[in-house]
Amino acid sequence: MTYVVGVTGGIGSGKSAATAEFEKLGITIVDADVVARQVVMPGTPCLQAIAEHFGNQLLTEGGELNRKALRQRVFSNPQEKEWLNKLLHPAIREEIISQLEQADSPYVILSAPLLLENGLEKYCQRVLVIDAPESLQISRTIQRDDSPKKEVEAIMKAQLSRSERLKKANDVLNNDGSLEQLEQQVLQLHQRYLAATVAQEK
Ligand code: ADP
C-alpha cells in the first residue's frame, strides 16, 4: 500500500515551500489544487458537463474553462454552487486517489490547503501541518500575491483555525524561521517517513 503523507496548512504557512523541498528529495507530490484544475481541462467529462449546464459562455475562445465567469455564476447562487460541488468533488477525489496509486516514490505527499476541511486525511497515513503565526501567514501572502490584507484574512476565515488544525496534526513543521530551518525540518521528516515506509513493508 502506498504510504501517504498529507500536508496541509493555512494560506501562506509555507506548504508550497515545504513540498518543493520534499520534491527535491525525489518524493512525488499530488497537489489537490493542481488536480482541481486538471479535472476541468479541455476534453474532460467535467468541463463538458459544465458547458452543458451553464452554456458555452463559460468557456474561453480556446475552449478552456473561464473560471472567473464560473465563479460569478455560482457566487450568489447556492443551488448552482451545490450542483458544481456535486460534480467536481467526486471527480477530484477519484483523480487524487488515482495519482496517489500511480506514484512510485518511497512515500507520496498529498498536499491540500483544505485537507482536513474536506476529509482528505482519510487517504493519509500521517498528517503533517505546516505551521506559522497568523501574522506571518498574512505578511508572506501579501508579499507573494500582492493581495489586500482583507482578502487574505477572508481566506483564512474559511479555513480551520490554527489551533484546530494543530489538534489534528501527527507532525508539525514550525515555519516561523528561515527557509534553511524549513529545509532542515523537511530533511528530518523525510528520514522518519522513509523509516516508517520500510516498517510498513515488513
Ligand atoms: P502556502 O503554499 O502555504 O500558501 P508558500 O509556500 O507559498 O505558502 O509561502 C508563502 C510565501 O512565503 C512564499 O512567497 C514563500 O516563498 C515564502 N516563505 C515560506 N516560508 C518561508 C520562510 N521560512 N522564510 C521566508 N519566506 C518564506
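^ adenosine-5'-diphosphate complex. The two ends are 12 Å apart (CA to CA). The first helix runs from residue 15 to 24.
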